[in-house]
Amino acid sequence: xxxxEIKLLFxxxxxxxxxxxxxxxxxxxxxxxAPAGMGTSRGGLRATLLHFLDSDWQWRLxxxxxxxxxxxxxxxxxxxxxxSEFPDxxxxxxxxxxxxxxxxxxxxxxxxxxxxxxxxYTAESGAVRERVLWHCLFxxxxxxxxxxxxxxxxxxxxxxxxxxxxxxxxxxxxxxLAP
Length: 179
Prior knowledge:
CATH superfamily: dinb family like domain
CATH class: Mainly Alpha
Shape: globular
Low-confidence stretches: none
Number of domains: 1
Strand content: 5-15%
Order of helices and strands: HHHHHHEEHH
Number of helices: 8
Radius of gyration: 17 Å
CATH topology: Four Helix Bundle (Hemerythrin (Met), subunit A)
Largest sheet: 2 strands, antiparallel
Helix content: 55-70%
Strand order of the largest sheet: 1-2
Number of strands: 2
């Protein structure tokens, strides 16, 4: 894997995130904050969106070495984003923009050697893990795909289907190719 290839995958990730957030902006405050999901793993729209934003953030902290030493459960939970911090979609979108900027800065500084090297970190369970860094970075994109599909299910249930998020559609737009 090269840094250009992983950056392309993150461009897709951010493109798809912007699409789902754009459609989410059509929801009223009650729909945004509703706790119950329709067959989703995280609950309602806010919980689903926040979960994958929090996951992006937690992984970036891991990539930056924050979780290289064992944290207690209390210390780990203190780093998690909370629903109460995002009473409306505007607050969530603002935080998402900041996270994207931080991850982009991380990716710009990344070398091919580091990308293909081993990442050692302590998981939430306390287990020490060693993974190839690009595998973990790919997981961030893949995890986002999973939860964007759950958000799409919720949005469709509210009568606002977000359309397709296919990687090939992104490529068509990114490289200005005909669909």
